[in-house]
């Protein structure tokens, strides 16, 4: 009697263990850390939507983009159809919160990898935590060059970095002089003062000196500023031809309003992405957003060269009533990349995932980005990414550089505020 009871308990335990194992096999937790509240909440919302779309495609498939990886749906085939489960964390734009949320996701939620975190300074702290716990961290958007100069083994970045982007600015100056006769010499820099903005300022100053451009004024302002009047007055007094600007959403909008209020009209505002590529930037400013040029990594008009761009953007638009931006398109690509690595690893063990990331080789034809592909170097940096420049005209982003893939001619200079319709 006693032995039969023991057998029943053992059998029940075995069934329970099998059930737990089966459930674990059905679900792969990936932690995602983004600014879901605060000044960049709308940016975070767009990136959250991109993650949700990517996970839905992996788990359930899509007929609208049949050549996209995982378009067949059914989860990860090499893990018996295991489904991706996203576990969201809000870093609020705060590096300390990002670090604590990374630790919570790893230790309490038991995620197998982390994706994030848009703000470079938050990515820096959150990825330090993942490195300590030896959990892979996939960074789709943060562009501070130093992030891949830390000798980390578990950090991988799919986007190009600011060293490349700032070089693109100066190549654009050379190209526009050679092909359009526009001579740029006097520059001003106007950047927020966190890791990203400060590093961008250093790169812009260094390359200006090396390439013979004169920086007439360098201004770094406090992140999350609520007024920029004195900074813009100082910049206006220096009279730069071109303002090279790095701002997140709140300060990008604030600076444009202040430029108009004070009648500051440089020949061009050349922005370093971020707030200038958020849907809310154009929605809030309306026509006042027009003519700004910003570096980008994605634009819907590039669909003429890659049908996958339109197919996936249409899916995104039908669900959320907005188009992808360079931010959300990179976030989508980041989740597809980590899913590809986990699938190839055939395992949720961190070392196996890390090894698969090292071996990543995704061709450009499988991406919605206008890149040659995704392949990481020893530092974890994708070596096949590239940048473009887009200009806002009639409320839409248009590719204007490189000139050989441009869909519209660049409008230069920007019309003065009192000459706009």
From TrEMBL:
Coiled coil: none annotated. This is ABC transporter substrate-binding protein. Residues 1-24 form the signal peptide. Gene3D superfamilies: 3.40.50.2300. Pfam families: Peripla_BP_6. Belongs to the leucine-binding protein family. It comes from the Bacteria. Keywords: Signal. Residues 27-392 form the Leucine-binding protein domain.
């Amino acid at each position: 009697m006693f032995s039969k009871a023991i057998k029943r308990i053992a059998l029940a335990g075995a069934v329970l263990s099998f059930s737990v194992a089966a459930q674990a096999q059905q679900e792969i937790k990936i932690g995602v850390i983004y600014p879901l509240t605060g000044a960049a909440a709308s940016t975070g919302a767009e990136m959250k939507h991109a993650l949700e779309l990517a996970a839905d495609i992996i788990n359930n498939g899509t007929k609208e983009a049949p050549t996209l990886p995982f378009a067949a749906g059914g989860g990860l085939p090499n893990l018996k159809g295991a489904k991706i489960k996203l576990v969201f964390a809000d870093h609020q734009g705060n590096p300390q919160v990002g670090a604590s949320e990374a630790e919570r996701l790893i230790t309490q939620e038991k995620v197998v990898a982390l994706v994030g975190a848009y703000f470079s300074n938050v990515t820096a702290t959150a990825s330090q935590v993942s490195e300590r716990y030896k959990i892979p961290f996939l960074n789709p958007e943060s562009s501070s060059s130093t992030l891949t100069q830390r000798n980390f083994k578990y950090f991988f970045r799919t986007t190009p970095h600011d060293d490349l982007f700032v070089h693109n600015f100066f190549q654009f100056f050379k190209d526009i002089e050679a092909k359009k006769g526009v001579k740029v010499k006097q520059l001003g820099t106007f950047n927020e003062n966190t890791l990203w903005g400060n590093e961008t300022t250093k790169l812009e100053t260094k390359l200006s000196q090396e390439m013979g451009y004169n920086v007439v004024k360098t201004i770094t302002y406090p992140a999350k500023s609520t007024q920029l009047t004195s900074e813009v007055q100082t910049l206006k007094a220096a009279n730069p031809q071109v303002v090279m600007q790095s701002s997140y959403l709140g300060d990008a909008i604030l600076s444009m309003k202040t430029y108009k209020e004070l009648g500051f009209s440089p020949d061009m505002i050349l922005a370093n992405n971020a707030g200038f590529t958020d849907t809310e930037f154009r929605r809030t400013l309306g026509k006042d957003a027009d003519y700004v040029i910003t570096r980008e990594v994605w634009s819907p008009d590039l669909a003429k060269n890659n049908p996958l761009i339109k197919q996936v953007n249409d899916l995104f638009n039908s669900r959320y009533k907005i188009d992808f931006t360079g931010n959300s398109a990179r976030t989508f690509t980041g989740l597809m990349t980590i899913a590809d690595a986990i699938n190839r690893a055939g395992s949720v063990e961190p070392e196996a995932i890390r090894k698969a990331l090292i071996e990543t080789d995704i061709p450009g034809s499988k991406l919605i980005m206008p890149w040659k592909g995704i392949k990481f170097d020893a530092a974890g940096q994708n070596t096949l990414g590239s940048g473009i420049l887009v200009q806002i005209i009639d409320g839409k982003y248009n590719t204007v550089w490189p000139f050989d893939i441009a869909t519209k001619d660049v409008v230069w200079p920007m019309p003065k505020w009192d000459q706009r319709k």
